[in-house]
Design brief:
mainly beta; nine-stranded mixed sheet
Length: about 240
């Protein structure tokens, strides 16, 4: 049995994302990754400084607002490091029959519900319009999925199974320097919030948004109609 630990990531405007870390289940013919430990850092949220002016009767004062950074309420960013190995082992991985060095390839998945292998097979690539509809975003907003997921989805293989519908899917590129990070969107047939899975590719020792070396960087949408939203994290090492 895979053990999962819950932690809470605070967002702006009292929006909270609960994160559960786990590992992706794969068929018996393939190596089955063991659960990894979770290690979440402190949440960071940008805030603008409030400016004030004295108003006096009879005055006319020009006030310009430039380079305003307004914090989005629609997206949560995740980034961090990944480590592990591929093994043939007993329950819990205490005794390892064979172990292989991980070659730094893989994917980090953020799913809006706990997944099993049958459900992973049912995923299909989704486009920006579908994300906006599912999460209740207005397509015309500057930070809507329509203005965020603007790239073409890459082909995705989960536990040896190709995910269909890539031609109809979209991704957001989060590249930094020479690091090529993307977040791709997928969902089950229903297409509601809990059907969604977002996949971020692993690029070991890539340059993250803050200039630090990290292994993955991705974003997930957060509905603005609820106070909290749960994402379950899975990792596949290949």
């Amino acid at each position: 049995m895979i053990k999962r630990n819950k932690l809470t990531a605070a967002l702006t405007a009292a929006v909270v994302v609960a994160v559960v870390f786990g590992m992706l289940c794969v068929p018996a013919a393939m190596a089955k990754p063991q659960g990894g430990s979770d290690d979440a850092g402190t949440n960071q949220t940008f805030t603008n400084e409030v400016k004030s002016f004295y108003a006096t009767g009879g005055n006319i004062t020009p006030v310009n607002f430039t380079e305003i950074d307004f914090v989005t309420g629609k997206w949560q960013g995740f980034y961090g490091n990944v480590s592990g190995e591929l093994v043939l082992a007993n329950d819990g991985g205490v005794n390892k029959f064979v172990e292989w060095t991980w070659l730094n390839n893989g994917t980090v998945f953020a799913a809006a519900q706990e997944m099993n292998f049958t459900e992973w097979r049912a995923l299909e690539a989704k486009n920006a319009a579908a994300i906006d509809t599912a999460f209740g975003f207005v397509a015309g907003d500057s930070d809507s999925a329509d203005h965020t997921f603007t790239e073409t989805s890459d082909a995705l293989v989960i536990a040896g199974q190709s995910v269909p519908g890539v031609a109809n899917g979209q991704a957001v590129t989060l590249s930094s320097a020479a690091t090529n990070w993307e977040t791709n969107a997928y969902a089950l047939t229903g297409g509601t919030i809990t059907d969604y899975v977002f996949a971020g590719n692993i690029s070991v020792d890539g340059t993250a948004f803050d200039g630090t070396p990290q292994d993955y960087q991705m974003i997930v949408p957060v509905t603005t109609t609820e106070e909290s939203q749960i994402y379950y994290f899975y990792v596949e090492l290949v």
